[in-house]
Each structure stands twice: as C-alpha cells, then as structure tokens.
Design brief:
With about 300 residues, this protein is of the alpha/beta class. It has helices at about 20-30, 35-50, 55, 70-80, 95-105, 120-130, 195-210, 245-255; strands at about 85-90, 110-115, 140, 185, 215-225, 230-235, 235-240, 260-270, 290-295. It has eight helices and nine strands. The structure holds S-adenosylmethionine.
C-alpha cells in the first residue's frame, strides 16, 4: 500500500518545462517567471496542507502529463467524431490535465473531474486563476471505492450505440455515468492502491465505459519491470504492475464480460529535471518507472 510520509517542502524541486510555463502563462496571465514560480509555490503550500503527498511536493500536480501520453490524440479525435463524448478524470487533483484537454479542444461542458478532495479541486481554481462560473467543468467529489458513489457494474457489450449527453443536473455521484463515458483518464492514481484494489478499481472504471468501439481508458502511474512492491524508503511502498501483468489484468476484467480490448502498456524511466519522483530521498537506489497505458474497446 502506498502510505503517507513525513515529507518537507523544498522550493528547489520546482521545475516546470517550457511548455508548462507557456501553458501557465496563457491561463493565469502571469508572464514573469519569478512571479509564476512564487504563485505556484504559494498554492503548493496550501495543497500540501490538504494532501501531504509526493505529487504535491515534487510539483507533479502542475505538470502536463495526460497530453504527453500516446493515447491523447485518440481522446482529442473523439471530440470531433462523437456527438457528446464524456471525458472523466479520476483522481484529478488540482485539474491541470483536464484544463489542457479543454485548451486542446475537448468541450469543457463534457468534462467530469472527480476526486476525494474538494479542497484540491478548489485550489486548482486558485492555481489557474479561474472560476467555476467561467470554466464550467463538472466536478464531483467522492471516494471511488464507495459503492454509493461508484456502483460496481459489468461493462456493457460493445456496440455502436451513441451515448446520451451528460445529464444537465449537478452530479453527486458517478452513477449517472455508468456505461456512458467515452474516455476515462487515471493519472498517478492506480499506484495509490494495493494490487487487489487496483483490480477492483479497473472493474469499476470498466463499468463506466461507453459501449462504442474506440472508447478508451488510459493513464500513467508507477510500474516495475516485474510485478513487485517498490519500496524506495522506510514507510513508502507501492504495488507496481509490469506491462505484461497490467495488460493481462485489463484483458481479464473486460474478458469476463465478453468484451474485447486492445491494451498498450510500456515503462518509461522518469527523468524530470534530473530528479525522479522519489529521487531526493536519501538512500533511494531504485529508479522510479512510469507505466504508461491505454485500454481501447475493439
Ligand atoms: C497522486 S494524485 C494524482 C493527481 C493527478 N491525477 C496527477 O496525475 O497529478 C492522486 C489523487 O487521487 C485522489 N484520491 C486519492 N484516493 C482517492 C479515492 N479513493 N477516490 C478518489 N480520489 C482519490 C487524491 O486526492 C489526489 O488528488
């Protein structure tokens, strides 16, 4: 299980690349690099009080990640090809990735972002100087493992059915999205949970997926060359799949409902400003691998 740690903030870890700085400049209107850094660090401090987690400490929450995955082009294509495709970001944190998708053309009214923390989502508005009135994402707070919030359901059989648009009323759970979501994104999310919970989560997300061929679940999180527990430091451990075991998991989850999927999965070793996710931890000799993946209905 991925645990909470005794971590201290370190402003020296701030490292937005050129594309990310341009993205922040465009959305916040802050054009001076030093001002931008001070602004991001100020929001980071508040976020860290809510969620004492490495992804806040390393500024991971401000990185563009979804748009750099191989399946991202398929997501953007859906916005052109489907009448009302729904994008769901599970564990959206401050909402950096969904903002990128909207800038790149995905209709904001069709995006649902969900997280267990309302406070982190609200801090996203502070980070990007946006307001819910002007950026009408649907945000719905909840725990994905709470069956009242995300009720387990078998994946629908694949068919060319056109999925109805998002209901107009405010969402209070993910129940209205069962079998209706064209694309589900899960960034740095699965690795928070045990192997057993990861498989359960895969089943829960599979039940949300729209029946049309091409419907997509994709993401990235910690992985290893063999399925194993990554334990970089005392008190920190992560249940990590390997590409083969991750592919097998999704084929099993959908196969039980007679649904065929194509699964892409590969590992990437992180090289982010010379520091990996846990690279600044003393005694950490184990590199952090990112498992990048997508599951597509055939
Ligand atoms: C490591 S962050 C990843 C955030 C973002 N997707 C990214 O790639 O940077 C994990 C997020 O999952 C949320 N989270 C943790 N457990 C959750 C749960 N059971 N249900 C919903 N969200 C959860 C946390 O609040 C946090 O925002």
């Amino acid at each position: 299980m991925y645990q909470q740690f005794d971590l201290q903030l370190d402003p020296a870890l701030y490292s937005l690349d050129a594309e990310e700085k341009a993205f922040f400049r465009a959305l916040t209107g802050i054009n001076n690099d030093n001002e931008l850094k001070a602004h991001v660090i100020a929001v980071q401090k508040k976020a860290f009080e809510v969620y004492t987690h490495p992804c806040i400490r390393t500024f991971d929450f401000a990185w563009l990640k979804m748009s750099r995955l191989p399946a991202y082009g398929n997501l953007l294509a859906m916005a052109q090809e489907r009448p009302d495709p729904i994008l769901l970001d599970v564990g959206c944190c401050l909402g950096t990735d969904v903002r990128r998708a909207v800038v790149d053309g995905f209709p904001v009214g069709n995006v649902v972002a969900t997280d267990i923390s309302q406070a982190l989502w609200d801090l996203g508005h502070e980070l990007f100087r946006s307001s819910p009135a002007h950026l009408p994402f649907r945000f719905v707070r909840g725990n994905v493992f709470d069956p009242a919030f995300l009720t387990p359901a078998l994946p629908l059989p694949t068919s060319p059915t056109v999925t109805p648009a998002l209901p107009a009323q405010r969402l209070t759970s993910l129940a209205p999205l069962q079998g209706r979501v064209s694309a589900i994104y899960a960034g740095a999310f699965f690795h928070l949970f045990s192997f057993a919970h990861q498989e359960h989560l895969a089943r829960l997300l599979a039940g949300l997926l729209a029946p049309a061929p091409g419907s997509l679940i994709f993401g990235a999180h910690g992985g290893r060359p063999t399925p194993s527990v990554w334990a970089p430091a005392p008190g920190a451990s992560m249940d990590c799949h390997a590409p083969d075991s991750w592919r097998a998991l999704w084929v099993r989850v959908f196969g039980e409902a007679g649904v065929r999927v194509a699964v892409e999965a590969h590992l990437r070793t992180t090289e982010r400003g010379g520091r990996d996710f846990f690279g600044t931890w003393p005694g950490n000799a184990q590199p952090f691998h990112v498992l990048e993946w997508s599951v597509t209905r055939l």
